[in-house]
Amino acid sequence: MKHVFQLATSDFNNTTPHVRSHILRDHIIHPSLPSLPLLLTSTDIRTPKVIQIKSNPNHRVEAHFWNHATNEQFRISGRAAIYPSPDLKEKKGIKGVGEVYEAFQSQGWDWEDERRKQFDSVGAHMRASWCRPVPGSPMDSYSDAEKWPVKVAKPGEEGYDAKDYEEALGNFALLLIDPIEVDYVELGVMPNRRTKFVRQESDDQRWKEMVLVP
Question: Which GO-annotated molecular functions does the record name (predicted)?
Fold first, then answer.
């Protein structure tokens, strides 16, 4: 099951917040750092959020999760990394910085292989969303969308079109979040509880726990 969450960024002046929904596609965990998972989602490399994240000196973002079944809220603040197609002429990506990414690099982890795997794991309708004009660009009318591909099949699937597939793949990028702080609120218990976990960069105790007023 894929979880929908909200991802917040700020503009290049750090004055206006921007938020949008994302799908959590996976957790990437290095064997030597089991308490430091990376959250994996995806984006169109042409979207404004990429510029917003790159303009932040520390590439900070915040993710918000809400579990309706248990009335639990998670706000996760962390450093973002973006891995686009290596074939792009312009360098639009953000390489991950920190011990988690360094651990993957030392292991020879192939983010391009992960990018392609994640792209092929989504449905044909979803893949078509990366085969459209630049997100947020003006349209003459809603009928313009009738010209766009409805499905983009992957190799081996019926209706495969190499041009559409490669165009969509070229716009598809991984977006990873390396958590630094987690604000956890339990609204399903009475009285409500709130706990904050702060990552300790230079301590054997990876996370410092603080009980807060809900």
Answer: FMN binding
